[in-house]
Amino acid sequence: PETIYLSDYSPFGFVVDEVTLTFDLHPENTRVKSRTAFRPNPAATDRTFFLHGENLKLINASIDGTPVAPDVSDKGLTCDVPDGPFIWESEVEIDPQGNTALEGLYMSNGMYCTQCEAEGFRKITYYPDRPDVMSVFTVIINGPHPVLLSNGNPVASSEGHAEWHDPWPKPAYLFALVAGELIAHADTFTTASGRKVDLNLYVRPGDEGKCAFGMQALKDSMKWDEEVYGRKYDLDLFNIVAVDDFNMGAMENKGLNIFNSSAVLASPETSTDMNFERIEAIIAHEYFHNWTGNRITCRDWFQLCLKEGLTVYRDSQFTSDMRSAAVKRIGDVIDLRGRQFAEDQGPLAHPVRPESFQEINNFYTATVYEKGAEVIGMLKRLVGDDAYATALDLYFERHDGDAATIEDWLKVFEDTTGRDLTQFKRWYSQAGTPRLKVIEDWADDTLTLTFTQHTPPSAATPEPQPLVIPISVGLIGPIGDEVAETRVLEMTEASQSFTFDGLAARPVASILRGFSAPVVLDHDLNDTERALLLAHDTDPFNRWEAGRTLARKSLLSMIREGTAPDRAYLDGILAVLRDETLDPAYRALMMGLPSQSDLATALHDAGEVPEPDLIYAATETMRAAMARRFRDVLPALYADNLVTAEYRPDAEQSGKRALANSALALITRTDGGVQAQAQYGAADNMTQQLSGLANLIRADRGSAALKAFEAQWKNDRLVMDKWFGLQVIEADPEDAADVAAALTDHPDFNWKNPNRFRAVFGSLVMHHAGFHHHSGKGYQLLADWLIKLDPVNPQTTARMCSAFQSWPRYDDDRKALITAELDRILAQPTLSRDVTEMLTRIRK
Ligand code: HT7
Ligand code: ZN
What we know:
Blueprint: E1 4-5, E2 14-24, E3 30-40, E4 50-52, E5 57-63, E6 66-67, E7 71-72, E8 76-78, E9 86-94, E10 104-108, E11 111-115, E12 135-142, E13 147-150, E14 153-158, E15 161-170, E16 177-180, E17 183-190, E18 196-203, H1 212-229, E19 237-243, E20 250-251, E21 256-260, H2 273-288, E22 297-298, H3 304-322, H4 325-344, E23 356-357, H5 366-383, H6 385-399, E24 403-404, H7 406-417, H8 426-429, E25 435-443, E26 446-454, E27 469-476, E28 482-491, E29 495-500, E30 508-511, E31 520-523, H9 527-536, H10 540-561, H11 567-578, H12 584-590, H13 596-605, H14 612-629, H15 634-641, H16 651-671, H17 674-682, H18 686-698, H19 703-713, H20 717-729, H21 736-743, H22 754-766, H23 768-771, H24 777-789, H25 794-801, H26 812-826, H27 833-843
Parallel strand pairs: 2-12, 18-19, 19-21, 22-24, 25-31
Antiparallel strand pairs: 1-23, 2-3, 3-9, 4-8, 5-6, 5-9, 7-8, 10-11, 12-15, 13-16, 14-15, 17-18, 20-21, 25-26, 26-29, 27-28, 27-30
Bound molecules: (3S)-3-amino-4-(1H-indol-3-yl)butanoic acid and zinc ion.
């Protein structure tokens, strides 16, 4: 496959002033007519007229009304064109029903929908499908469906016919069309400037009862973006549509967001607290794209982090404001370490702004999204809140309507703050997770912290240079009092010292507060010092981090030397659990352990080979020890936090349920599932029901409840995804792959539906000891199904391939088993470009 390079960017030779698309919908033979006004682009030198187009049957084409016969290939067409402005018209035929890849125009449960980011529009018609070509779209839809939707505002509609006009120029990737029998959940929002916006959430009949929460989240997001970023909505209509077959979470098409039904539909009976929180965040994320992505888009796909990093950052600010900022930050860091650090430290490592790709769909990664958001957080930390707000105002003013770059983004910060961001820009161009080592020196009432930074070289970045690292530091005195408030140290050198003087006694340094930079910190505190931070740090992140570090250290020595669980760790957590002044959600987080795959990474970092069975056993031993050590507080923790009031998915109630359910997981270890059975039987919401079920499976008494659950929910696709996933997640390591394999024989295992495929195989991959079973049966099963799925849906297949990215850290037997599977997949005769690129990178 061809490799595309950032350095090869050149503008398209033509400007598109407007485009009119006419769709005559038919499941197998949809006709798409396009009428596009082109004129030479004064900013371009190359006048090659190339229009992207894939899987299209060209019926006819003309220029200024005269038929033409373009040169057509499987990637697009070229044609001789006039020197001045001209009108291009074409008609193509496409097959939405046969489009199982879910890119372009496709069908889901009898409904038509589109997914055009990144390069799906070229499967709809011939067009310059690149984000720097922005145009005003008019869309005419003919089809026998009660609901016919596209971007912008409706301009005409009659039975079987609708016309839409979007006044805001946009790239083709933001185009959308939906047609089907849908029900609207309607509401309105009035902007700060008095514009009344109609809001609709369109769902399939039967899902009407799952719309209210999503709608409220949308209104909250619209208000928040006005209040915090001064961004108002710019059309009279905002539509969201829920579809069941969707490759990712949701898509920010202008005025017509399309959502995976799992990312928008919610009700207390069918959705967990975590589902509600995720839905709120995704609705916000897609809505925020209206400014960071749509009004200001990306010049090319290398700039993806420009819209995604910033929008993730904005949605995390929103969630912090709506819920608990500390809990959100800790959750984000757990996620970053689990997914982004793994990517950055393995064969798939790439910079936040990659410099080359074969298939752009493979770069919608944790690095681009989550590390991209961390980079924005660091920038804000370095310049300060006020300067960030000023820079953002200038960004919106200067670049509204532009297809912008990271250079444009950094320039607004340089212009508003006077800073030189040349070195900071390395965060965008260097792959790899920096290691930050700190050494303390105490003399003459002065604490000196000497930091050394080192980014391990990788194929993507063979010679990393020092980065600008904001290091938030506070000091805790020997009796637990804060003796120095948070100060942001700005590290720019490979090695650098900072001093804190006038201290009465040697303090304990609380370093990297709030996780102020996405680095691995090496700070050699002893267990007493960590216990002090766990008990007293005023920074909630570092307080949690102290507990997490004690847990990790204890688990590592249990794995290596078979030691007993660390008593100081257990005592420290017990004290936290007893502290009723602490938010229940925060206490629930404190009860968590590092994931088994995080422990594998820690061992690998220390130059050791992780053994999944030992890691699993140590984690189980630790949980059993927690159940014993906390036994006096668990019943009250459970009872006090079991919410009996009417269900609300807000931070307060969901935090309490999280704590009660963490307690239940430990109680189940000693009561054999009695409490879990009671909870399962009494539950009136999915959070309680699912946790009851999970604990029953753990206690080996899940079969009746699993059957009852299936009977109760067999007609609810989203709940059944949970049923499929939970059985794999809760299986013994010995059985996980067999359970997954058995589930693929279930009549409801619709493997072409990405949610269902991920429910089974995403869960298997997350089951560290199950997936890495020494027999290789986990690897083999996944490979079999990836081979089967690839011809149907390459995008989802390629995404799942990342399960194999950690192969170099395992023992020789497992390495041989994994690489054999990778080679078996790579040997398939018609492997997609998506999977070929992923596996070639992973295999290196
Ligand atoms: N901007 C979107 C990214 C995306 C996508 C969404 C759904 C299906 C396929 C997709 N490919 C890329 C989602 C977002 O980040 O908001
Ligand atoms: Zn996004």
